[in-house]
């Protein structure tokens, strides 16, 4: 087997490591608890991680272009609170406007997209550092969410608003005479990942994203408007965060000032463990979906096994660290391969001991 074939096999294994980890996690927790590998629990896992999945899609888009969006969890909470205030009655914590639910959803999504556009414009047009910019927005929006909230949950939202996050498509009869409700959110997040995968894989915009993330200067030299691509990516991230807020508020039938709080690190971990590189230009949305599944499986499995919440937090940090470690190894390996190719095509080549790559 030649070196090029070995390189391809190695990268394929690393990029698809997530699915091996998902299978291992399923097997381990199924052996630990009989109640884990049941239709109810598996459907519940997919339903619970649906908001996380939407955030991961937006984060994956930004990471592919070698950027970050650390404000997405706050966009999720802020847009959910805005919608809830517009839709709920005064006695339930709202402003008493009780707008049409579909108008409330439209405003919610529009606010998310506008915040994303704001991030994108400041980063691309004004040269703001993407890390600092989005951390600042994370803090601003979380504070704004508390400021506009009534200091408590805003609940009893309209059924039309709750349907996407808390509704059921159909029910499947089980052998014990009970029914298994299939949540809308489960199908929605799967379709969302499928659409995101098709966009990144088969559209010009998707190819431009990878080109910008791989080498922005080269992409611009090839005629790609990198500023436009990055701005649109942030708009997509803001829209995904608003959709995540819609799913979460719909499932809980309420919005709180803490909606989405603490999700940014799970989002990063799920995306990176799923193969999306922190350095840009590499990864796919199928792997990112696997990262979301793994996070949900570990969280649910450890809770069913009655592991201490403190150790669950340790496991979350360990998963994030492992994701960073795998990404660093992959990037280092790709750099070594690239150097070897350059030296092999040079006039001296790899045979010269002065140019050997350790």
Radius of gyration: 22 Å
Overall spatial form: globular
**Main sheet strand line-up:** 1-4
Provide the residue-averaged pLDDT.
89
In percent, how much strand structure appears in the residues?
under 5%
Class based on secondary structure composition and strand pairing: mainly alpha
Percent of residues in helices comes to 55-70%
- Number of DSSP helices? 15
What is the H-and-E element order? HHHHHHHEHEEHHHHEHHH
Distance between the termini: 21 Å
Unreliable residue runs: 354-358
Write a brief caption for the model.
With 358 residues, the protein is mainly α. Helices cover 70% and strands 4% of the residues. It has a two-stranded antiparallel sheet with strand order 1-4.
Note down, in words, how this protein is organized:
Helix 4 (50-64) packs across helix 13 (264-273) and helix 9 crosses helix 10. This protein is globular. It contains 15 helices and 4 strands. The longest helix has 36 residues, at 309-344. The chain is mainly α and 358 residues long. It starts with a helix and ends in a 14-residue tail after the last helix. Strands 1-4 form a two-stranded antiparallel ribbon. 70% of the residues lie in helices and 4% in strands.
List descriptors.
70% helix; globular; 358 residues; disordered C terminus; two-stranded antiparallel sheet; mainly alpha
Strand and helix layout:
Layout: H1 3-15, H2 17-32, H3 39-48, H4 50-64, H5 72-87, H6 101-124, H7 130-148, E1 154-155, H8 159-166, E2 168-173, E3 179-183, H9 184-202, H10 204-214, H11 216-221, H12 226-252, E4 254-255, H13 264-273, H14 285-304, H15 309-344
Antiparallel strand pairs: 1-4, 2-3
Helix pairs in contact: 2-14, 4-9, 4-12, 4-13, 4-14, 5-6, 5-7, 5-12, 6-12, 8-12, 9-10, 10-12, 13-14, 13-15, 14-15
């Amino acid at each position: 087997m030649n070196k090029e074939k070995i390189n391809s096999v190695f990268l394929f294994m690393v990029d698809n490591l997530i699915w091996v980890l998902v299978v291992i996690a399923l097997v381990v927790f199924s052996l630990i608890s009989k109640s884990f590998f049941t239709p109810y629990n598996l459907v519940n896992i997919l339903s619970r991680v649906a908001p996380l999945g939407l955030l991961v899609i937006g984060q994956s888009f930004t990471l592919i272009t070698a950027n970050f969006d650390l404000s997405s969890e706050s966009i999720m909470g802020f847009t959910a609170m805005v919608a809830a205030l517009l839709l709920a009655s005064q006695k339930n914590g709202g402003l008493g406007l009780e707008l049409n639910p579909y108008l409330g959803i439209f405003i919610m999504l529009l606010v998310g997209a506008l915040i994303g556009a704001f991030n994108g414009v400041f980063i691309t047009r004004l040269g703001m550092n993407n890390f600092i910019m989005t951390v600042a927005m994370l803090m601003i929006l979380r504070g704004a969410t508390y400021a506009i909230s009534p200091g408590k949950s805003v609940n009893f939202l309209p059924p039309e608003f709750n349907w996407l996050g808390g509704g059921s498509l159909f029910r499947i009869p089980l052998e014990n005479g009970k029914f298994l409700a299939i949540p809308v959110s489960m199908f929605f997040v799967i379709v969302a990942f499928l659409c995101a995968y098709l966009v990144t894989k088969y559209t010009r915009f998707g190819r431009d994203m990878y080109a910008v993330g791989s080498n922005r200067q080269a992409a611009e030299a090839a005629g790609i408007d990198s500023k436009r691509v990055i701005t649109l990516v942030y708009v997509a991230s803001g829209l995904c965060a608003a959709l995540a807020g819609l799913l979460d508020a719909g499932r809980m039938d309420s919005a709180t000032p803490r909606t989405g709080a603490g999700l940014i690190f799970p989002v990063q971990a799920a995306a990176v463990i799923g193969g999306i590189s922190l350095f840009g230009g590499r990864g796919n949305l199928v792997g990112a979906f696997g990262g979301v599944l793994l996070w949900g499986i570990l969280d649910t499995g450890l809770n069913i096994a009655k592991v201490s919440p403190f150790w669950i937090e340790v496991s979350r940090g360990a998963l994030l660290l492992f994701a960073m470690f795998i990404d660093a190894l992959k990037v280092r390996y790709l750099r070594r391969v690239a150097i070897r190719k350059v030296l092999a095509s040079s006039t001296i080549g790899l045979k010269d001991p002065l140019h050997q790559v350790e």
